[in-house]
Design brief:
9 strands, two-stranded antiparallel sheet, 7-stranded mixed sheet, 261 residues, 7 helices, alpha/beta, globular
């Protein structure tokens, strides 16, 4: 498929649920490495077909970078990928390690959903890459992970504990999610800026939301962050970001303390 590289880049974020039975968060913005405007406010999609069709509608003929929070390439039958081991070691003191991914585990959810998306979007010119390079042109898909990104981008001493975990109180999740939403709204003042983010989630009362509704907001927030990682990577590349793992074995791209800046 021909891509009009004279058009602004579309930065897409997808918080992909491991199973199509659960909704996935999605967000999109359009611009250049110097900054972008939110054009698709965070929402949720269910099936792979719905995700692919939405992406096609949003990007048109433009170049695009799709950042997905989910395992995309999983060659290992058991255990965990090198990417997860390396990322966990680098961000251990921030509690920002990812879940292990292997084919046996993902089979419980219907298989490696990320691989199916890679295949579906190949006809649209998307290429899987281990890392986003500054100013790169074309259509690319990269795997990302929100926790280390929040630590680096927002200079946090540890992850934001908004996810449901054993022993984690609902009140803490609500408080931490509120912090997360506030930080995401502040991306309008980031480098690069994401314009339109400051208008999101105003008037929402997290204390009144059920755990299920909180999860929906989490998915949308993570999708927005994924889109911003795509933009941030396009701006800074290896100067402020790093890829863990390998292209063949699966890689996770993230803003990173260890990159020179």
């Amino acid at each position: 498929m021909n891509v009009d590289t004279t058009l602004p880049t579309v930065y897409l974020g997808l918080d992909l649920a491991w199973s199509p039975r659960n909704s996935s968060g999605f967000a999109a913005c359009v611009g250049t490495p110097a900054g972008a405007q939110l054009v698709q406010p965070p929402s949720r999609l269910l099936t792979n077909d719905a995700i692919v069709q939405t992406i096609r509608t949003v990007i048109g003929d433009a170049p695009a970078i799709l950042a997905i929070d989910a395992p995309l390439v999983v060659p290992n039958e058991t255990g965990r990928r090198t990417a997860e081991a390396e990322l966990a070691a680098a961000f251990r003191r921030y509690d920002a390690g990812p879940h292990p991914a292997n084919r046996r585990l993902l089979a419980r959810y219907g298989g490696v959903r990320g691989e199916a998306l890679l295949a579906a979007l190949a006809s649209d010119g998307f290429v899987y890459t281990a890392a986003i390079e500054a100013g790169m042109s074309g259509r690319f898909i990269v795997e990302v992970f929100p926790h280390p990104a929040t630590v680096v981008l927002f200079r946090l001493p540890h992850i934001l504990r908004y996810k449901a975990r054993p022993g984690r109180a609902l009140a803490e999740r609500r408080r931490e999610l509120g912090r997360y939403l506030s930080l995401l709204r502040g991306l309008s003042g980031g480098d690069p800026p994401l314009f339109g983010s400051d208008e999101l989630w105003h008037g929402i009362d997290l204390d009144q939301l059920s755990p299920r509704s909180l999860k929906a907001v989490e998915d949308e927030a993570d999708a927005l962050l994924c889109a911003y990682i795509a933009l941030y990577g396009h701006r800074w590349g290896a100067t402020r970001c790093r890829s863990y793992g390998t292209l063949e074995g699966g890689a996770i791209f993230t803003p990173d303390w260890s990159a020179s800046n």
